[in-house]
Amino acid sequence: MGDVLSYAVRGLTRRHGVGEHSVLANDRIDLDIRQGEVFGVLGPNGAGKTTLVRQLMGLLRPDSGSITMFGRDVRAAPDLPARLTGYLGQDDLALAELPVATAVATTARMRGVSRAAVREVRDAILDELGLTAVADRPLARLSGGQRRLACVATALVGDRPVLVLDEPTTGLDPAARRAVWGALQHRRDTTGTTIVLITHNVLEAESVLDRVAVLESGRVIACDTPGQLKASVSGDVRLDLAWRHEPPFDDPTVAMLARIATTNGRRWTVRLDPVTAREALGRLTTGAALAALDDFSLATPSLEDVYLTLGGASRDLERT
Amino acid sequence: MTIVPDERNAPAILSALQPEPSLEPSLEPSSGPSTVPLPLPIPMPARLGPPKMPLATPFGTAFGAVYRGQLARSKVGRIPLLFVASFQSIGILVLLRGILDVDNSTAAGQVVAGSTVLVVAFVALNLLAQRFGALRAAGALDYYLTLPIPPAAVVLGTAASYATFAAPGTVITAVVGALLYNLPITGLWLLLPVVVLSGVCLAGLGAVVGLLAPRPELATIAGQLGMSIVLFLGVIPADRLPEIGRVARDVLPSSYAVDALAAAFQPGVDWSKVVIDLAVCAAVGIAALAVAAVTLRRVGTA
Which domains does chain A have, with CATH numbers? Predict the structure, then answer.
């Protein structure tokens, strides 16, 4: 694995607007997305994720740089992404008034699924994503989560070799989210589908991605497996403390932590090396400060920590 | 008080909480509490190698799918609008009945034909401009542009679904008009080519207008303006228009559809003229559709 690149992106640059108010949405981005991997693009809102995927889909023209799919230049063959890729965008107005089953079936037909096979294909995907019960209802009359799930079904139907999904699990409840992750991994494992998944959710990134590119202000600031990224930036752990009332600052451990903690009301977050963290927590939970402590947790670094350590400035990454 | 570890981080947290140094042999390759777990190897997919290139979907299949989808959508809220379209045209017929000299069969034929084509214009220009304006504004054209289908199939499939609901309106308008103005209805079969060709023509223009409008409200206004122009230049008999009106009438492609249909209400039909009028409609229709397809791609892929 690894020799065939579903996408090879080189020096991709795209500016929005002109003059003083222009924004460099993508700044010299290089990416290699291998066939059969679940590749993630993680970043806060405004990092340039959607600009990147819209270029991958041929919906935006790069100002400079190149994109190839399986070795073929997308600019020379603009129909490549539409033929090879199932795409989930952010807006679903085109489908909003269609019943779920019709939306899925007509999309399948537009991806060349034969008339004879379309019913079976449609029912399979509705079943896989738990949409059978709402198959006859228009998308606009579903809850936000079910509506998004129906759009995911339209992106998956027709079995494309590549899937490009822009925040597929936004607004989904945990069960639906797991159904989507399961559907993606099933396709990757059985048919070698390449999946490009845009997310600003750290849990999603850590749960399903083989590799992840971290995007900040249009630049890729890191790209590796989630585990390697976490290992590369820090051996620290995160100690979260929640105080019942005013913390006892006369306690030396509390005083020490107060100096380095990021506070949010009575919630403290401290990044420490594991030995210090363990010792501090030990003293807190056995000493007098325990009475003031409402809750605590100790966790290894998350991709959010990676993002922050690498210089990410935004605070809107989701954790749950 | 709880330890609330993420499930995947649990072993690392537990080891971090254990006294150090641990004398227990560890299963982890590096058991130091400061290390994060090694990444799991990426599972190998079952089959690899460059994928078979999926073919682009043929026009007919794509057209059918767009049409079916739009038709399902039309059930939601289009029907009342199409009643409006028919009533509007019949209202105009009734109104002009009081003004026009019924014995002038040329003028009467043109009024009826103009009112009938107006139903098509309402749907093709007005509703389609609104629809594509809204799709553009919402960024929803992406859906179609990322499917392996010809853009013309999107325009034509959408137009055809609206036309399905407009068709009864055109028949009702033409028949009511013929009865109201004492015109023969034997030539009414001409309605079919007239409606289809003027529909393609005006739908192409409506889609272009909707796609080019920078804001959806402007698309709506432009569509309604276009419909008003079709109304005035189509319903008012050509010989009663001022010079500039006659020039505008000649430029407007729907006029040729009106003329072709008006001929059907006359006792002696000049077929060569009808064929030429319909040919003009067809040519403009194909051109408008091609422009709409190019516009769809251009606007959607900035």
Answer: 5-231 (3.40.50.300), 235-300 (3.30.70)
